[in-house]
Amino acid sequence: MPHRTPITRDFFDRPVLEVAPDLLGRTLVRTTSDGPIELRLTEVEAYNGPTDPGSHAYRGRTRRNAAMFGPPGHAYVYFIYGMWFSVNLVCGPVDSAGAVLLRAGEITTGSELAQKRRPTARKESELAKGPARLATALDIDRTLDGSDICAGPGAPFELLAGEPARADRIRTGPRTGVSGDGAVHPWRFWIEGDPTVSPYRAHTPRRRQPSI
DNA sequence: AGCTCGATTCCCT
DNA sequence: GGGAATCGAGCTA
Fold first, then answer.
1. Listed GO molecular functions (predicted)?
2. pLDDT, tens digit, for every residue of A95-143?
């Protein structure tokens, strides 16, 4: 399969736990007004629908998470911590609300554009190391929520076959920053040894205001 | 109407 | 390793 073959919607029809590791090594093309930025995915997390306590879908459909409950092959973009965005790719049947969080990758095209967006990055490997950094580097915000990933060249997003990661290089572990019962599942997937993979952090409960 | 805290990053010690 | 920044979804009332 040639490197630059577009991935079609049936790729996303499968269960999210199957799609997530299969995304590693694939190329996400983000077409901006300034030109294309391409990202080789190195780290993702699966969020497994309404029964997954770690998922935004856990409490059912809301205005924010509506895209997750929509058709596969679309983006779910959400705003977090008052200043960042994160990007997911929706998987599985409509209403199953499966989504893969794109956590990190290697910028392979348009690194000048990404640098401009991420001036604090000191190394190429830091441009998209972490979900909010990835979204910033690729100029992704809430206006792209619900975008079709499989609409073809020139759309805001496209996914290319790339070079899927070898199975023996894929590692799994608990999801970063997920609390409670959602933390037990090893649904984080990354390419072992890749310098763009973000460091694992366990969930840290935020301290309450000190009561004097 | 008010409150808590999050699928984080950055900067400081 | 810890705290600040910053806003809004979702819960409690």
1. hydrolase activity, acting on glycosyl bonds
2. 999 999 999 999 999 999 999 999 999 999 999 999 999 999 999 999 9
Looking at chain A, how many residues does it have? 212
Question: How far apart are the C-alpha atoms of A104 and A172, rounded to whole Å?
Answer: 14
CA distance to A14, A25, A27, A163, A164, per residue, from A3 (Å): 21, 10, 9, 6, 9
Amino acid occupying residue A75: A
CATH topology of domain A10-191: 3-methyladenine DNA Glycosylase; Chain A (3.10.300)
**Residues 6+ positions from A178 with CB-CB distance below 8 Å:** A54, A203
pLDDT tens digits, one per residue of A67-101: 999 999 999 999 999 999 999 999 999 999 999 99
How distant is C1' of B8 from CA of A118, in Å?
15
The three-state secondary structure class of A139 is coil
CA–C1' A95–C2 (A) = 40
